[in-house]
Amino acid sequence: MRQPIEGACAWHGEEMANSKRWIFETSAESLAEIEAALRSCQANSIPWQATTRESFPLPTFSRQLAAVAEELEEGSGMAKLRCLPVARYAPDELRQIVLEPGYAKYAEGSCLARFGDTHVLCTASVEDKVPPFLRNTGKGWITAEYGMLPRSTHTRTEREAARGRQSGRTQEIQRLIGRSLRAVTDLALLGERQIRIDCDVLQADGGTRTAAITGSYVALHLAMKQLLAAGAVARLPLDDAVAAISCGIHGGATVLDLDYAEDSTASADANFVLTGKGGIVEIQATAEAAPFGEAEFAAMLGLARAGIARLLRFQRRALGLD
User: Residue 58 belongs to what domain range?
Assistant: First the structure.
């Protein structure tokens, strides 16, 4: 005959219903610690995988977590943590953003843009020539190319070069990147030279085009700084900054910076390309299920503006402007 289970891990539902030993209230002090640690990691572009006790200090909350762990391991085996505002850190939060300038050794400008698990290498190459339609006009040009490495996705994707043609999606994205950068560039000041942007997706988890635009601006800025340092231009040929972010409606909530799992199941998704001064360069919005209304679109736009304001700060920090 089996021996009866005894000790703290043995309990009846009625007993637990009347007990508070397994319920833990998160204090205001602990919430302030969490908020401060989160903002510090975001400000220093520390990805969640690289967080440590030192970079994410929680001196008060860690004691409570130790009590939670003890209840789970040595006590009832059950714990409920109350008053932790999970919703605050979900729909309106960017994924972990890292913009690493100067990533490529030989390009005049480069940036590795990490939006969560989406990683895009962006380079800017300066050419002392322009397309035929701009010859003898005194104006320059910015063009872009975009591609995905075969194993940037869950299963291997055939190289477009092997197929002999680019997909419609690829052509659309690279044109979008070029338009976005030209929107904030003084092409006359650039002179008769072309800057070619190359965006290579190393790893895709949603939002590759928005990461490409945001990282490409950093690469372009760095390339133009080289032109300025060489005396090739009178001043930096940039009128503004530009960044991009995705928004969508997922599970009935408006969500910022969708990853692949969210994007593939969203009832609506949109990409917003906005300038530092708040100008709209382009908006791509699609209802994947039922049509969405103006109020829902306004909510996505508002979320996008807040997200891009943060991306602009990441760009300035990557460029050493903050």
Answer: 13-89
111 and 68: one domain?
no
DSSP-derived 3-state class of residue 32 = helix
Which amino acid type is present at position 96? Q
How many CB atoms neighbour CB 218 within 10 A? 28
- Considering the domain architecture, whether residues 113 and 62 belong to the same structural domain is answered as no
Q: How far apart are CA 204 and CA 153, in angstroms?
A: 6
Q: How far apart are CA 48 and CA 42, in angstroms?
A: 9
Residues 123 and 54 reside in one and the same domain: no
Cα–Cα distance measured from residue 129 to residue 194, given in angstroms and rounded to the nearest whole number? 6
255 and 309 part of one domain: yes
Strand order in the sheet with 141-148: 97-101, 109-115, 118-127, 194-203, 141-148
pTM of the predicted model as reported, rounded to 2 decimal places: 0.77
> Is 112 found in the same domain as 65?
no
Q: 6 in a domain, yes or no?
A: no
Q: Which tokens sit at 188?
A: 């006359």
Helix (H, G, I), strand (E, B) or coil at 130: coil
Choosing from 64, 89, 114, the residue where a domain stops is 89
Mean pLDDT, the chain cut into blocks of 10 residues (322 residues total): 69 76 83 80 70 88 87 83 63 86 97 95 97 95 96 92 91 97 97 97 96 98 97 96 95 89 91 97 94 94 95 96 88
Q: How does pLDDT run across 170-212, given as a tens digit for each residue?
A: 999 999 999 999 999 999 999 999 999 999 999 999 999 999 9
